Amino acid sequence: MREAMCVRRFRDRRADRIERNGALMADGAPEIIGLRFELFVTDIAATLKFYEATLGLVPPEGWSYDGYVPLHSGSVTIGVQTAENLRPDHHFSKEKLSGPRGVGVEIVIEVADVDGAYDRAHAVAGEVGGASEPLVDRPWGVRDFRLIDPDGYYVRVTEMRAG
Q: Who's near 17: CB < 8 A, 6+ residues apart?
């Protein structure tokens, strides 16, 4: 019953959306122009090696590896840093980061050629401290595979979907 009320409320709010720059948005909502995220890792060098070898994500030319390092490919940016670089009152305390990383989160990266991405990533993932899962055709109509990075972050690499 409660779930049905939530669904009705969501549908009613859809009617309050406006079109801005060709995108349908909730009235009054900020225009979202991008997404990037940060991973707090144990070993920056190992993480950089993993993401470059598997997905071709690299830092900008001449970037310092002492602290926060942004990794880029196309429109994707993943920032990496260690807990040692965080201020003592940061949300991610050393205690919070002492357990498994990324629990309950699946990072999704869309690629133009999922077969090529799989061939590259699967061939090296284990050699650079991570793992890969098989390339699979999903019942919902996409092909994808999963990577597990050296800290246990779970990354789904999927073909780009239209729309």
A: 24, 25, 26, 27
